[in-house]
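Here's what a typical entry looks like (ORAV1 protein):
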Amino acid sequence: ADLFDGIVMAEQRFHGEGYQEGLAEGSHAGMAEGRRYGALQGARISSEIGCYLGFALTWHCLLQKCTDEKNSKKIRALGSLIGMIQKFPYEDPTYDKLQEDLEKIRGKFKQVCSMLNIQSDFRMDTEKSSLTF
């Protein structure tokens, strides 16, 4: 009876072992792919926000010399953008409002660009590895 049991149950046993091996290998491959994808997306977001910050700090510095009312509104908007960027949670990938805050920063950036009469079309040109507006 034991001999026939081993033969009859072999398919089920091999199926179970194969499933466990496949699950372990798939989990490992999924984790590696997830890390690569997360690092790529994090780099893109960091590059975008870094560009916004550099833009805002530069314009803020340039407009400090002008004291009329029109420029003071621009300076306040730039200060607001800088503050939003500085509060952005770079170190917390589990932050639940990450996308929401990123959209707010993008919106503020577009508002500032409109105030400065600058086209706000941010994109990364991956072939030339440069930022264009």
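The mean pLDDT is 85.

More examples are in the samples folder.
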